Each structure stands twice: as C-alpha cells, then as structure tokens.
Amino acid sequence: MSSEPVITAAGSATAAGGPASGGSQPVRVAHLGGDRFDINIRGHLIRTDQPAGDGGEDTGPTPTELFIASLAGCVAFYARRYLERHALPTQGLAVEADFRMGSRPARIARIEVHLTIPDGVPAERREALLAVASHCTVHNSLTTPPEISVAFAGDSGQPGNPGNPG
Question: What is the pLDDT of residue 24?
C-alpha cells in the first residue's frame, strides 16, 4: 500500500459516484517503481501495472483495462438502477466488455459491451433498458468528449505562464 495521503472529493457526490455538475474530483496517482502506480480516489486505492511480458510486474490491471472496466461498471450501474426503478429482478445482471487496440495514435479502437439481463425481465423492457445502459456517464463522456489539459503541477498550461515557455 502507498503512504500517499487520502484525498477527498470537492463538491457533493452524485448518484453516479462523481462530483456534482461543475464540481471537481481530485485523483492522485503516485509512482511506486517500475511500471507500478497507485491511484487514490476518495480514499480508495487502485494499483496499476503492465503485464510481465510488457516489462511490468503484473501487480494490477493496466490503465487501459481500468478504462474499459469503468465503462462496463458504469453500464452495469445504470442497468441495475433501471431494473430497480421498474421493480424488475437484478439477480444475474452482468456486463462483459471486450476491446481491441488501434495504432497511430495508440488508442482503443473498438469496444464491445454485452449485457446479460436477469431472467424475468419482460421483452418489452429490453429496448428501454439498453437505451438507459448505453447512456451512462462514462459512455456519454466518450461520445461527447471532455476537455482535457495536461500541464505541470502549478501550471495552468496557458502560454506565457511561468514554467510554460509556450
């Protein structure tokens, strides 16, 4: 385990587990050596690494695998909430995701997400369930990408700021 301080989220949490609209939620990643990193999210610790065949120690999933897991977990969360809201069974709900990598640039090129729905979910509810599940927060963030900035700590990333010769 890392000795990194516990980080708490600013703003109130929403039902989907993120910050309220417009709020921020800090995530801290600390290098542990080699390809190992600890990610601290609201006091929850997640280890990432690379497979042994790629030079890592395989002590945790890769960041790319966590990305896919986040999508699958979000789809599952939305599906379960839909089922619960309509008094439908949730026992047996499962989500499986598979992905393929692309190159130039290195990226995930294809993601396939499959829902296993519980017995007892009527056929007339399937289309609505799929619509709700496919509009989870992570999926929405992929189809309407967020603004992303990468800068040095203490630097806003704007040209003309100290530490950014841009």
Answer: 85
Question: CB-side exposure of 33: number of CA atoms within 13 Å?
Answer: 4
Of all residues in the chain, the percent with pLDDT exceeding 90 is 77
Whether the bond between 105 and the residue before it is cis, its omega within 30 degrees of 0, is yes
Q: How far is CA 25 from CA 8, 9, 12, 40, 125, in A?
A: 8, 5, 9, 11, 34
Chain region(s) in the chain for CATH 3.30.300.20 = 62-143
- pTM attached to this predicted model: 0.80
- Domain spanning 62-143 has what CATH number? 3.30.300.20
d(CA 125, CA 111): 24
Distance CA 74, CA 139 (A): 8
Q: How many angstroms separate the first and last alpha carbons of the chain? A: 38
Q: What angle, 0 to 180 degrees and rounded to 10, lies between the N-to-C axes of helices 123-133 and 63-85?
A: 140
Question: Regarding beta strands 44-48 and 36-41, do their DSSP bridges make them parallel or antiparallel, or are they unpaired?
Answer: antiparallel
- Are 55 and 35 spatial neighbours (Cβ–Cβ below 8 Å)? yes
